[in-house]
Amino acid sequence: SKTKIFGGRINQITVSGDWIYYNDVSKEKLGKFYKTKNDGTKRTLLSNSTVSNPNIAGGWIYYTPISNNTS
Q1: From residue 28, how far is each of 21, 25, 58 by CA, in Å?
Q2: Which residues are CB-contacts of 27 (< 8 A; sequence separation ≥ 6)?
């Protein structure tokens, strides 16, 4: 069965164990990187920047930060 765990716009989704890692690209969030348990709980901000190519290995999160500076 399917369960909706987030209602915003996301991209760069990576799943590792019980965690989902993603960019929240909703207009009010301006592209921040989060992790959330796969049941939708424990949403945690990881970076104030949008990231590219997130990869989880050996307990570490590897990614390329992307500037949110639009000026």
Answers
A1: 19, 8, 33
A2: none
